[in-house]
Amino acid sequence: LFIDQRCTPIIGYKSQELLHKLLFEQIHPDDQLKFQDLYKRTVTQKNAANPSANLPQLIVRFRTNLENDYV
């Protein structure tokens, strides 16, 4: 998982703090099924010529380290 350093003020985590966290646990509970579905479709299309062309955009809320809120 790559976290741009510019995200640190927004999410309250430094990239090294997220190394041992599960990505799915950082996604808002109401968004987890949508995220898991997109993840599965991405993995199954990894050998396609252009896998991202067939996938929809998905906006999910991510847990912050700031008052346990989501952005």
Question: Which key terms come to mind for this protein?
Answer:
71 residues, mainly alpha, 0% strand, globular
Overview of the molecule:
This protein is mostly helical and about 70 residues long. Helix content is about 30%, strand content about 0%. It contains three helices and no strands. It is globular, with a radius of gyration of 14 Å.
Topology:
Layout: H1 8-11, H2 23-26, H3 32-44
What is the helix/strand order? HHH
Backbone shape: globular
Total DSSP helices: 3
Tally of DSSP β-strands: 0
Q: Quick one: biggest sheet?
A: none
- Spans of 5+ residues with little confidence (pLDDT < 50)? none
Distance between the termini: 18 Å
pLDDT averaged over residues: 82
Strand content: under 5%
What is the helix content?
A: 25-40%
Structural class: mainly alpha
Rg result: 14 Å
Outline of the structure:
By secondary structure, this protein is mostly helical.
